[in-house]
Design brief:
The chain is built from eight helices and 13 strands. It is an alpha+beta fold and about 350 residues long. The protein has three domains: about 110 residues, Tetratricopeptide repeat domain (Serine Threonine Protein Phosphatase 5, Tetratricopeptide repeat, Alpha Horseshoe); about 70 residues, Immunoglobulin-like; about 130 residues, no CATH class. The longest helix has about 45 residues. The protein is rod-shaped and about 155 Å long.
Length: about 350
């Protein structure tokens, strides 16, 4: 073996697990002790491979400072200096739970001595990547190196190591280096564009937004057609209202004329005439005018509503498909004038 612990304390350390104050859930201290004892036996016999396997199994069942120290010595024996250094560092953490202040102090002193010895032999490496495309993967001996670890000087075991870097659109860069104990090495992996690599797929085209007003199909819009028909019906209804209103107005004029000439007199709603002919004429005008006036009023508002609806459909239909959102606000407004009335349509179109 490359190194041996010397002194009575060192022998006690490697031959004793040194229990720490761990919770016992899921652990098996008895089996761990048996494996540890077998590892010490194999180690004394020179079977480092068998001994280190026992120490590793014991550590998994019940971690202890003594077992951790023996795992560090196993790594050092195999020439894995960086691993041995890390194992001794872990032992220092475990030693914080060792029972007994004096015992803890002695073990810490021993660990500091071993760590210091290893640090004089410890190789270091710095890995750099140029360029650093997005999604690049860098590995050391098949293990991933995080992007955050690039450019950072870290301990490494002496010997041969292979570094590689790959990225989409680039040729894989590979370097194998040999690093000796105590050496410091910088490894730069340079990615070169691969002309044979398939082009990086472009981002999928964005889905076009649906227009606020889809294009109007060829041919007249149904709203325009319906609006035209309703407008025509409304116009005819208004015409009928005008005719019936005119007749009713004429009959009212006949009665007013008889009253003005003094042929008939009015007392409230009662009309009295001097002659039977005037009386018949007045009665005929009244009987015909009243229902015609009512019919005129009804058809006036009905026709106005139909015409307004039709006109609104025509306006909305004609603005559909325009680039900007149309604002349509149509209102029917009654109009009263002496002797009659009508409707108007107002609003924003």
């Amino acid at each position: 073996m490359k190194r041996m612990l010397v002194g009575a304390f060192a022998l006690v350390v490697i031959a004793t697990p040194i229990a720490v104050a761990h919770a016992q859930g899921g652990r098996d201290p008895a089996a761990a002790q048996a494996l540890f004892d077998k590892g010490v036996e194999l180690q004394k016999a020179g079977d480092w491979t068998g001994a280190c396997a026992k120490f590793d199994a014991s550590m998994k069942l019940d971690p202890s400072v003594g077992t951790q120290i023996n795992l560090a010595r196993c790594a050092d024996h195999d020439g894995l200096i960086a691993r041995a250094w890390a194992e001794f560092k872990r032992a220092k953490v475990l030693n914080q739970e060792t029972a007994g202040a004096q015992r803890k102090k002695e073990i810490d002193a021993y660990l500091d001595q071993e760590i210091a010895k290893l640090e004089t032999r410890l190789p270091h490496v710095t890995v750099k990547l140029s360029p650093q495309p997005e999604g690049a993967r860098v590995e050391r001996d098949g293990a991933l190196i995080p992007v955050s670890g690039l450019g950072q000087t870290v301990p490494i075991d002496p010997g041969s190591h292979t570094f590689s870097a790959s990225a989409t659109g680039y040729k894989t860069a590979t370097k194998t280096v040999e690093i000796a104990e105590g050496a410091t090495l910088e490894v730069v992996l340079e990615l070169v564009a691969d002309p044979t690599a398939p082009p990086t797929p472009d981002a999928p085209p964005s889905t076009p937004k649906k227009p606020a007003n889809p294009p109007v199909a060829s041919g007249p819009d149904w709203m325009i057609v319906a609006g035209g028909v309703l407008s025509g019906v409304g116009a005819l209804t208004l015409a009928a209202s005008a005719v019936t209103g005119g007749i009713a107005y004429s009959d009212r004029g006949t009665i007013d004329e008889l009253l003005d000439e003094g042929v008939c007199t009015s007392a409230g709603e009662t009309i009295t005439c001097q002659s039977s002919a005037a009386r018949d004429q007045t009665q005929e005008a009244a009987d015909r005018g009243e229902p015609l006036a009512l019919a005129s009023t009804i058809t006036l508002f009905t026709g106005a509503a139909i015409a307004a609806t039709g006109l609104t459909l025509v306006i909305v239909g004609s603005t559909r498909g325009s680039s900007s959102e149309p604002k349509v606000d149509a209102r029917v407004l009654p109009l009263w004038v002496p002797g009659g009335g009508g409707v108007g349509i107002g609003g924003a179109f």
